[in-house]
Recover the amino acids of this structure.
């Protein structure tokens, strides 16, 4: 198996920085990236630019001295078999040029080992809990929830693929004021259906689905006091089916109602009291969150005896750690941004590192139809649901489109583009590359031999395609570090584009048997990576289109 040259080169840069006495000046991790223009080598580092201000020297001068050291070290090591030269280019980038044999060996590895060559144990089986969607069971899932579902599920797939032990969890807010309002909404609609004139408050749930629940409750003779729980259960069944149809399956549905009954909230309070982080003031119970960087202390039990949302969240997050998870990832909507510090303060109060909790804010999505945005209002029931998206464009397009922008960016979802069977539709473009390769492999009578000679792959498009394949693992690592699977959609589009360019310029099946076999191997490698990437996105990999 070829060595991981990226790791070796980073170690080499570290050694040279140590020799030159500059290592102590590096405030950031040394990074190696794939140059955006492959005329500038196969790996590139900008460490000289980072050191320039600290050393008060021009970056080109620093880069030249460092490159000389790197070249000298390479000639004394096994790296000389793989690295052809180290060059300083541009404003001070140090670029490494590799021998083509390195890429051929990597391609062979993908062909022979398949997806196993792409996965890793980088996560070390660390237990991760990703909590996402967690919508109140008061209505069908909106596009905001759908985007969270796509992001959370794909992120879980990626982390599992690279060696983490990942579980998916839905926190079910199945008690409290919103359930009471839901029950009251159903009760009023039930009276209306029976001919009574009613005044329906603006803050009640007004969608047509409330009438459906009211009819169902009437047929089953549900008591008024039970309408809230009946409606929540009815809606939860719908939510679960919508998520299944979207390809999202949760390992755990965590009930807030059960949490309250378990005594875990009181246990959490007791622990915080012993640590001195709870105090009473003005008849309320306060959490001393300022001790952990929050801008003010937070009430967890009001003067009337009712608990705040933070009270249950404190116990809930501590229970996550007590269940053995060491890395918590929460996907929240933008209206929860101000809530992050107080939850991090809570887990720190229990002795955990705030770094063990990543809160990802997933921005909202606007749905466009015929060039016009569709207005949404959850309470009034005037919004596009996940079910409508699935019915109109299908799960594949829905998932891909919801993942196409950084989670921190607002997303515009164009329904018309998502339905197109053309290159304008990105998911179609990627899936078509996969299907086209399957068609070529089916129609070929030539076989990929064990003693395959890949050295005949000399064309620029061929080498670019191989190099693009090797960016897959780097892309997954970016997804891990950022807790955002967005870059995987970008990568797959770039890989599909590289394949289509290659295919348009070069015949895979030709008179040269050795070249035909090599190109078949190349596109098989592309198929493996495309298939792996689409699978991680939760999208089908069609063999015919």
């Amino acid at each position: 198996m070829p060595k991981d040259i990226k790791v070796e080169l980073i170690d080499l840069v570290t050694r040279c920085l140590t020799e030159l006495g500059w290592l102590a000046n590096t405030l950031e991790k040394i990074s190696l990236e794939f140059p955006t223009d492959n005329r500038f080598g196969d790996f590139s580092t900008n460490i000289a630019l980072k050191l320039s201000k600290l050393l008060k020297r021009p970056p080109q001068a620093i880069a030249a001295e460092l490159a000389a050291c790197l070249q000298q070290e390479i000639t004394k090591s096994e790296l000389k078999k793989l690295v052809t030269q180290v060059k300083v280019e541009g404003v001070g980038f140090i670029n490494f040029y590799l021998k083509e044999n390195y890429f051929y060996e990597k391609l062979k590895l993908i062909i022979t080992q398949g997806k196993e060559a792409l996965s890793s144990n980088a996560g070390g089986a660390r237990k991760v809990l990703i909590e996402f969607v967690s919508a109140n069971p008061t209505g069908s899932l909106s596009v905001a929830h759908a985007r969270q579902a796509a992001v959370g599920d794909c992120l879980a797939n990626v982390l599992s693929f690279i060696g983490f032990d990942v579980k998916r969890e839905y926190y079910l807010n199945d008690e409290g004021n919103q359930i009471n309002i839901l029950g009251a909404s159903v009760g009023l609609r039930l009276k209306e259906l029976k001919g009574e004139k009613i005044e329906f408050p603006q803050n009640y749930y007004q969608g047509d689905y409330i009438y459906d629940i009211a009819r169902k409750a009437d047929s089953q003779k549900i008591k008024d006091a039970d309408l809230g729980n009946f409606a929540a259960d009815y809606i939860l069944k719908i939510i679960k089916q919508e998520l299944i149809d979207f390809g999202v399956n949760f390992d755990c549905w965590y009930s807030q109602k059960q949490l309250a009954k378990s005594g875990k909230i009181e246990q959490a309070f007791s622990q915080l009291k012993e640590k001195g982080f709870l105090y009473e003031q003005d008849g309320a119970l306060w959490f001393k969150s300022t001790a952990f960087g929050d801008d003010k202390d937070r009430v967890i039990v009001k003067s009337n005896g009712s608990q705040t949302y933070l009270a249950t969240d404190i116990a809930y997050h501590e229970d996550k750690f007590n269940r053995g998870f060491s890395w918590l990832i929460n996907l929240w909507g933008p209206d929860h941004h101000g809530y992050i510090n107080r939850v991090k303060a809570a887990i720190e109060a229990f002795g955990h590192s705030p770094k063990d909790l990543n809160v990802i804010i997933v921005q909202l999505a606007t749905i466009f139809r015929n060039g016009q945005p569709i207005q949404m209002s959850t309470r009034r029931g005037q919004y596009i649901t996940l079910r409508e998206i699935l019915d109109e464009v299908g799960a594949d397009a829905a998932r891909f489109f919801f993942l196409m922008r950084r989670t921190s960016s607002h997303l515009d979802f164009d329904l018309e583009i998502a339905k197109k069977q053309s290159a304008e539709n990105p998911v179609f473009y990627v899936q078509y590359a996969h299907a086209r390769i399957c068609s070529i492999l089916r129609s070929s009578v030539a076989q990929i031999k064990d003693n395959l000679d890949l050295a005949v792959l000399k064309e620029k498009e061929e080498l670019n395609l191989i190099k693009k394949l090797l960016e897959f693992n780097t892309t997954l690592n970016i997804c891990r570090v950022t807790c955002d699977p967005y870059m995987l959609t970008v990568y797959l589009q770039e890989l599909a584009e590289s394949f289509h360019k290659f295919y348009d310029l070069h015949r895979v099946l030709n008179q040269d048997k050795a070249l035909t076999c090599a190109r078949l191997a190349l596109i098989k490698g592309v198929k493996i990576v495309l298939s792996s990437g689409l699978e991680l996105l939760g999208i089908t990999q069609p063999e015919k289109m």
In short: The chain has a mean pLDDT of 93. The chain has three domains: 5-98, 104-122+424-537, 132-260+363-419. The radius of gyration is 28 Å.
